């Protein structure tokens, strides 16, 4: 079925359509400076294709939630949900083919990236029977696939970039057609931008952005100046879903509008003109029975701390204070830690979640078990989690002291893989497969596992041997332990 979406008119007044079926197979990249009309273009595309294909909008500013009333999109305010809930929603969306707008308004940059990554991964990881065609529109894509590092944590940046790369590089076979919009191509990761075959380039002024836009449009560098002269709402279009040659299109009108529009000039309030001398001679206004300070007085730190610590005699507590939780000895605390870690490791969805998310889950489980505040900090939890993924929950057992000491010389995220091999070697079991090591390492890439083993070998902690039948065994020379041979796959 061929469905054409009328995007507007070219310089001769002819309609410029987008072939929706071709767009699903070839993806779209939109670029333009702030105020060039990118959001207007996306809104036109969404409105004209509504009802023809499922639509999923990643909306960092909450501008597209107005599609809900007119076209039935489900508006999801991401700030109201946890990451596991966002992931479940992503799976349900693919199953029921619902058109949604994920509004990230109210979240900080790191929260937006974390939420978008979880949501896109849930769409990507849906079962094969739910691989229905869907337009996945990502506004301000440079926020989620930045070309370089920023102020967010590296772990969050990598997760968000990986999700965007999956959408643009591997999403087509799963029915996901990425439509990404960015203010500057120079800020967008190249491996994400390079997967689009259709382009709509709006007004931009920096030479580097004009040069990249001209390259994508197949124009000579001297023709790039035309991109700077584009009026607001006009874009140069090229691609199999739009036109085989660059064509300038002025985007047509839309039926809905964003919650926040461009600032407009409004008349200043009218006031009776007053001569300066009259103003200076004007009598003072009568004092009010109470005075307002134009700015609150800054309370010194010591005074503020004393005020917080001092109980108020005017406050009557209507309820008796909650009884304090009984103190727990070291063995009870360790038992709570072990039980919480067993529950986390047993959860299949926890394998690829970052330690920072699992740490929150760990704290909740400890509080539910009667431990008000776990003594573990984030680094200590990461090390305990690595041990737990290897099946070692009692880190104080004397038989594991030497293995844990060696594992401590490795980065925290590698401890689990080392200990998984050490456990198999000590118990005389077959060597763990690359898939098992990948799960413990928190990745789905077998290539990373092979590089991990090579790194540990370079530290003289592993000696790997492959026999003539292709089976691998690993020896830990400093412990004298060796695994049984097993297939690496």
Automatic annotation (TrEMBL):
Top-level taxon of the source organism: Bacteria
Protein name: ATP-binding protein
PANTHER family the record matches: HELICASE MJ1565-RELATED (PTHR42957)
GO MF, one annotated term: ATP binding
Keyword Cell cycle: no
Keyword terms, alphabetized: ATP-binding, Nucleotide-binding
ATP-binding found in the keyword field: yes
InterPro entries tied to this protein: ATPase_Atu1862_pred, HerA-like, HerA_central, P-loop_NTPase
Domain Helicase HerA central: 11-72
